[in-house]
Amino acid sequence: MNVxxxxxxxxxxxxxxxxRGMWLTYALGVGMLHIVLLSIPFFSVPVAxxxxxxxxxxxxxxxxxxxxGTPFETPDQxxxxxxxxxxxxxxxxxxxxxxKFFTISPIILYFLTSFYxxxxxxxxxxxxxxxxxVLIPKLPQLHGVRIFGxxxx
Length: 153
Fold this sequence. Notes:
Layout: H1 22-38, H2 45-66, H3 77-80, H4 85-88, H5 97-116, H6 121-135
Helix pairs in contact: 1-2, 2-5, 2-6, 5-6
Membrane topology: Multi-pass membrane protein
Keywords: Membrane, Transmembrane, Transmembrane helix
Main location: membrane
């Protein structure tokens, strides 16, 4: 990393998920979260999987779909301040590799969670609700849409 060197991106928030090693770091972070939850003695395996899924999806929702703007000082702050990170990702182009990865990863985690909880109805309802809260905002039809005015400003 070159400290003090200007970057060429108008908004670095658009390309950060394509950085080298970002997907591996993301997967390792989810794995570490799961190992930490498994190491807590009074959590059963199904509870640890459900908590991993719910915490992951909550974090994904907050960081990708709730927080707006960019942490960088950018010339386009006027445009970027009204967009979530998901809407800024890859300059808003749909169906890129980063968008596909961040759409498929909660689905894979959901399948793993469902399998290890043995499809228990309580865990299944929690995990399905959690999955839907991160998948619905990712739909291309909802790009820039604020349902009921939530997160409008």
